[in-house]
Amino acid sequence: MAEILNRFVWVVNVMTLTYFTLLATFYLVSSILAFRFLRRYATRLRSLDVESLVGAGTAPPVTLIVPAFNEERSCAESVRALLTLNYPEYEVIVVNDGSSDRTLEVLTETFGLVRTTRLPSAEIPTAPVRRILRSERHANLWVIDKENGGKSDALNAGLNISRAPLFCTIDADSILEPDALLRATRPFLEDDRMVAVGGIVRIVNGSTVDHGRVRNVRLSTNLLARLQVVEYLRAFLSARVAWSELNASLIISGAFGLFRRDIVVAAGGYSTETVGEDMDLVIRLHRTCRDRGMVPRVMFVPDPVAWTECPETLSGLARQRNRWQRGLLESLTANLGMFGNPRYGTVGLLAFPYFLLLEGLGPLIEITGYVAFFVTLIAGWWSPAFVASFVFLAIIVGIALSAAAVALEEMTFRRYARWSDLFRLFAASVVENLGYRQLNQWWRLQGTIAVLRGVRHWGAQQRQGFEPSAPGP
Amino acid sequence: MTPAADLALSGRGAGDRGFLILFGFIVIVTLCALGFVLASLFLRWRNNRVARRWAGLEARWDPVMLDVLAGAAPAAALHALVRPPDHRWFVEFLLRYGRRIRGHERDVLSQLAAPYLYAVSGDLRHRSVERRAQAVQAIGQLGRAAYRAELVTALEDPAPIVVVIAAVALSREYRADDVRQVIKSVNRLELLTNRLLVSVLRRLGSESAWAFREVLGDSTQSAKLRTVAAKVLAHFNDQESGPFAVEAVDQTDDLDLRVAALQILERIGVAEHLPVVRRLAQDPAPAVRGAAIRILARVGEEQDLQRLVTALDDPVSWVAIHAAEGLRQSGRTDLLEQVAAAHRRRSSIIVSEVLFRDAG
């Protein structure tokens, strides 16, 4: 019996260390690629006057689609900010997805909504639309009031009545920086093959928001929020930049993404069969385009910013990570035919295997690995080399990579201007790998189990609402 | 199996080699982590220093700069404040102003920049694309006259970004001998969207319309270049391009080009174009039908109103919307009201939407 257990633990240990090594290698390579790209990009931004290049007459019209479900606390401020973006021609479509709170009332009172009609330009099936409203004060603001059908359904309803060649999705609790659309549109002008562009999502917790604008960027005093800042920096400035460089991006965050409308409609819009509708859409865009003989470009650009509120409680974070993992697995399994398929280029040969094997199965491998590690210690089967390699790969490499992400931020955008914030970010890079990441994997493992059990709901979300600026004198 | 995974076997007697590899790896990654931390601290220190230097230079230059722009002080007063190590910074300082001002004040900036542009012109042949782009941007904004030949050469640059910036710079003022070269450079920018190319080329101004008519009328040119030329001519409202547009619509199968040519007729179309346009209002391609409907709404006769009303029931909603907007713009809201009252559901929705827009 002991021999069988020993054999099993040995296999798990080998698998875990192989997994950690591959993951570390990927992140090291992606950090190097990201460093090269971001350095070039920062210089390029200095040589380009984005506003004159994408100014009036050049910028394609954009529809902003904002799905809103029970967002009464933040929707007015978010929409107000969206109406003052620096962009020549755009409209905002807020989709009230059967909210049970006062979201619709708040929007109606704040923006003077009246009932109107609008001919759909696409016919993607959605839950019934109750009415279409339009603001009497802002000619470019529309609201769709519909029965609840989930985020994807709400996005499809917005897509059905949008007419601009590009549409942008943004969460109702997120804030776009004034020039974010201008910056995100630029890649569409520079490359005819561009089908989707994602901007960076930054965490607003701790910063001051005034009239829908982030005024004073600070790190939150909440430890969980700070750890997520480091996590987001690593995900966006390292991993997404690298995938974008390889033209193999599989994710454009639902909180801020810009898409070509005709291609998305041709791909059938958002899938309502997954909670990871953002990833699923990007995968299907790759598939649809390649199946039609077109090589699409999906790009991440680091300068257009959307600020979003992150969970500050363990339960909120657990729900979010559980949902992300379910979305990831559902999106990948729904498109399994792309796995290792050369027809889909780097997406099929590199990105898909990475996301399925290292991200999708990662939590299962890692959590099993931690259990096997402790069994190895308790049973006395360990050697110093094994313990050192495990600790090194599970923790030290993680710290190095998080520190690299902070360095990339400092090299490029420097949003956290205070020295104290910089030191806190480094501290968070260490702490993140001492419990937080392992906890994350545990929540994601629960998400994996939920997928196997067929769970498909979003889970309740708690919003703090934006921190208002200090009252004036 | 990776070396690290191999070490899992170490309890079963794996050798020292693996341990040494692992130890080396640990040292390297730990040093990398420390390196990243130190690099960040250094970058923060350097960036703060740069910010302080900028603040100091701006405090020194800004007041005199405003006087020079207002004509209250000579350029020499500002030049006296620029020390040799600050030459490149001064060019950057002027570029920042250049983005905010127009007209005569731009000429003043060029005069101010002239003695210092040498500091960036060396980068025109730099191996980094971004450095070349930056240099072309600076030269293009502040030294177009003196460095015109270099800008024309930059149109041959292998990097599209450099070509676009050079084309934008050269398009800021009309020079007959440069126009053909600027337009030709577009052929090398096939990945850029027509929208961006049009925005670059239309800066050449309507004096250059002759060159675009040449391109539109030349069937040996690429469809993309002819499409861009047609869009630029439409933007210029070029009255002489009508025959070129009609010919392009009739003689090509390229959808983008046909629609772009119709855009010219939408701007400058007259009664003599109506027979062609009426025929195209029945075209199988919705984009062509829609464009033709827009022209009918603008220059059509009484008999064309019925065509617009019929188009309200076009199977493609875009065409129907163009028809409704056309009727509204022609002042025939009475016809729209009649359609709305007829309760044909789809066209009623379009009409209500268009009328709401009118009310709004």
Describe the model.
The complex is a heterodimer of chains A (473) and B (360). Chain A has 473 residues and is of the alpha/beta class. In chain A, 53% of the residues lie in helices and 15% in strands. Chain A has helices at 2-47, 50-53, 75-82, 103-111, 151-161, 180-190, 223-245, 261-266, 277-291, 314-334, 345-360, 362-379, 384-412, 419-453, and strands at residues 62-68, 90-97, 113-116, 129-135, 141-146, 166-170, 175-176, 194-203, 208-210, 213-216, 256-260, 297-308. In chain A, strands 3-4-5-2-1-6-11-8-12-7 form a 10-stranded mixed β-sheet, with helices on both faces. The longest helix of chain A is centred in the N-terminal third of the chain and has 46 residues, at 2-47. In chain A, 54% of the residues are buried. Chain B is mainly α and 360 residues long. Among the domains of chain B are: 193-268, Leucine-rich Repeat Variant; 270-360, Leucine-rich Repeat Variant. Helices cover 72% and strands 0% of the residues of chain B. In chain B, helix 4 (87-98) runs antiparallel to helix 5 (104-113), helix 16 (274-280) runs antiparallel to helix 17 (286-299) and helix 18 runs antiparallel to helix 19 (317-329). Mean pLDDT of chain B is 85; it is low at 1-5. The chains are: A alpha/beta (473), B mainly alpha (360).
